[in-house]
Amino acid sequence: MFTAHVRVTLRPSILDPQGKAVQHALHELGMGSVESVRTGTFVEVRVDEPTPEAAEAVVRQACDRLLANPVTEDYEILALVPAEETAA
Amino acid sequence: MFTAHVRVTLRPSILDPQGKAVQHALHELGMGSVESVRTGTFVEVRVDEPTPEAAEAVVRQACDRLLANPVTEDYEILALVPAEETAA
């Protein structure tokens, strides 16, 4: 059993209105040093596969087919660890 | 200038209906080895501060005051690096 942490974010070339809104709100709260904010999705996937390679293949397939929009988003597997080690 | 990557997720004790829906969809797509899915928010924050400590303080303040709901969510700073090094 493995746990993967995946980041799915808009391509840098694509405007992120939600990020702009968050940045504006942080400035309103006095955090003027915040230059930019970009938001996305964080996904934790637990996969019952025998090897890390097999687990990664399933996670990539999940991203390609469902989790990430291939036209507007990029994804990155931030971590892939044996399931027992994750606290999240 | 520093870039922080932040994960904001529901507390493990809290039901994640969105995660359940994603898991169900992945099973429908033939990825039966997916045991569980938990979703959250990924935030990239660029902060114009002179030191990593100052940048981290701003990011923690942003999480405490806006990005993470203190009642239902946990947050974690996954990375804090000089801004030039990030690709995202």
UniProtKB/TrEMBL annotation, chains A, B:
Q: What is this protein called?
A: Phosphoribosylformylglycinamidine synthase subunit PurS
Pfam families tied to this protein: PurS (PF02700)
Q: What is its EC number?
A: 6.3.5.3
Instruction: Check the record and name the InterPro entries matching this protein.
Output: PurS (IPR003850), PurS-like_sf (IPR036604)
- Reaction catalyzed: N(2)-formyl-N(1)-(5-phospho-beta-D-ribosyl)glycinamide + L-glutamine + ATP + H2O = 2-formamido-N(1)-(5-O-phospho-beta-D-ribosyl)acetamidine + L-glutamate + ADP + phosphate + H(+)
Described by its record, this protein's role is as follows:
Part of the phosphoribosylformylglycinamidine synthase complex involved in the purines biosynthetic pathway. Catalyzes the ATP-dependent conversion of formylglycinamide ribonucleotide (FGAR) and glutamine to yield formylglycinamidine ribonucleotide (FGAM) and glutamate. The FGAM synthase complex is composed of three subunits. PurQ produces an ammonia molecule by converting glutamine to glutamate. PurL transfers the ammonia molecule to FGAR to form FGAM in an ATP-dependent manner.
Where in or outside the cell is it found?
A: Cytoplasm
Its pathway, per UniProt, is: Purine metabolism; IMP biosynthesis via de novo pathway; 5-amino-1-(5-phospho-D-ribosyl)imidazole from N(2)-formyl-N(1)-(5-phospho-D-ribosyl)glycinamide: step 1/2
Give the multimer and partner information: Part of the FGAM synthase complex composed of 1 PurL, 1 PurQ and 2 PurS subunits.
Key words of the record: ATP-binding, Cytoplasm, Ligase, Nucleotide-binding, Purine biosynthesis
Similarity comment: family membership: Belongs to the PurS family.
UniProt lineage: Bacteria, Pseudomonadati, Rhodothermota, Rhodothermia, Rhodothermales
